[in-house]
Amino acid sequence: MIAIIDYNTGNIRSVMNALARMGATDCMLTADADVIRRASHVLLPGVGEAGTAMIELRSRRLDTLIPTLTQPVLGICIGTQLMCLSSEEGDTTCMGIFPTRIVRFNDDAVKVPHMGWNTITQLSSPLFAGTDEESYVYYVHSYYPELCDCTIARTEYGVPFSGALMRDNFFGTQFHPEKSGPVGEQILRNFLAL
Predict the structure, then answer these.
(1) pLDDT score at 10
(2) Domain locations along the chain
(3) What does pTM read for this prediction?
(4) 77: closest CA among 157, 156, 142, 20?
(5) Mapping DSSP to helix (H, G, I), strand (E, B) and coil, where does residue 187 land?
(6) What is d(CA 35, CA 26) in angstroms, rounded to the nearest whole number?
(7) One CATH from 1.10.3720.10, 3.40.50.880, 2.30.29.30, 3.30.70.20 for 2-193
(8) Do the beta carbons of residue 80 and residue 48 sit within 8 Å?
(9) What is the distance between the alpha carbons of residues 150 and 167, in angstroms, rounded to a whole number?
(10) How far apart are CA 170 and CA 20, in angstroms?
(11) Model confidence over 17-74: pLDDT tens digits?
(12) Cβ atoms of residues 73 and 169 within 8 Å
């Protein structure tokens, strides 16, 4: 069973629909700690503001549960950001799974938010099996994870940043695989095969 963590953020339905299109029908939207612990895979998707999202996670005690999980866990967009050390958005302390900060794009250098298709390069994880360098994925964000030792894909938008991160059983994509066509579907399939 695939657990999709419910913490009152947007875009969760599009992830569920993408999984259903792939034939992954054994999915459950849940905030129940026991259900999440028993899941084979866990997804932390979402769209929203970091401070509010962390308040939601804390109110459900998910901020302490998620870092203890041992099965494959995939954060998507804000889910990835919440797995980092901190975010400039709302001066938010996050879960600290990935050793990097979330910072805002410079409005003077690029159009913010970064919205649309961009490439991922320097792919270095089983998450990207069968994915070509310079593949296009879909982004919608104003804040980004800085590069770090856990970076497994890079994207350039004014500055280079972590398009994806990995540490042990934890993975994060700043882009939206559920909106990234066949490339995103391959990435989700790879995650479910871990």
Answers:
(1) 74
(2) 2-193
(3) 0.97
(4) 142
(5) helix
(6) 13
(7) 3.40.50.880
(8) no
(9) 6
(10) 22
(11) 999 999 998 999 999 999 999 999 999 998 889 999 999 999 999 999 999 999 999 9
(12) yes
Which residues are designated catalytic? 77, 176, 178
Asked whether the beta carbons of 163 and 154 are under 8 A apart, the reply is yes
Measure the CA–CA gap between 149 and 142, rounded to whole angstroms.
22
- Alpha carbons 34 and 112: distance in angstroms, whole number: 39
Q: Per-residue pLDDT averaged across 182-186, rounded?
A: 97
Could you tell me the two tokens for 126? Answer: 């089983």
Q: Where are the beta strands (DSSP E) in the chain?
A: 2-5, 27-30, 41-44, 73-76, 84-87, 92-93, 98-104, 114-120, 135-141, 143-145, 151-157, 159-167, 170-173
Beta-bridge mates of residue 87: 92, 102
Local confidence band at 84 (pLDDT 50, 70, 90 cut-offs): very high
Q: Count CA atoms within 13 Å of residue 106 on its CB side.
A: 7
Looking at residue 1, its pLDDT comes to 96
